[in-house]
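A quick aside before the break. I want you to see a complete sequence-to-structure record at least once, exactly as it would be stored in a machine-readable document. Don't worry about memorizing anything.
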Amino acid sequence: MRRPNFKGWVSRELAYLSGENTLNLRRLAFLAQNKIPRLRERLVLYAIVTGQEERLRNFLYKKEMTAELETLVKELAGKDLNEPDIFESVQVSDRYKKAFLSYKAAYEKNDARNESKKLRWEKSVELQKKKGITTAQICNTLGFDAGNISAYLKRADIDRISLDKATDIMRYLYAK
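That is the input. The structure line, written in tokens, reads:
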């Protein structure tokens, strides 16, 4: 799984939080100011990362949201928003820090998943050797692709299988 970039992440967040399948700034600005206030931070950050600050400014009628946009445009000018620790180097409100922390969590999710797969691999290899179970037996019983499972178990290629499959293999080996 690839790491998200900031633009992709904030776009998905806007679609999810708004419940809409659109990135129409006029519609999102209306929702953020009237119905769904939790869209505010993501919308402002989206406008900044896509270079649409002026366009968003035209759709804002709440002064505090316009002020937030102005402040963030100045604060984030020239900064790399794809950097997961950016919130530590800029002065933004706690609401925006929470948004940046959400991005950082999404950015680091891949690392946590790979660490979990690595731990499952270590335990699976240990159990496989201890119990004398072949890779072919595991594949036949669980119905998994022999090539991917073999690469996972013999070469520690953790990218070849999902976390769920790694868990299934480990559970199978525990049960045997």
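Two observations worth writing down. The two ends are 31 Å apart (CA to CA). Residues 94-131 form the longest helix (38 residues). We'll return to this after the break.
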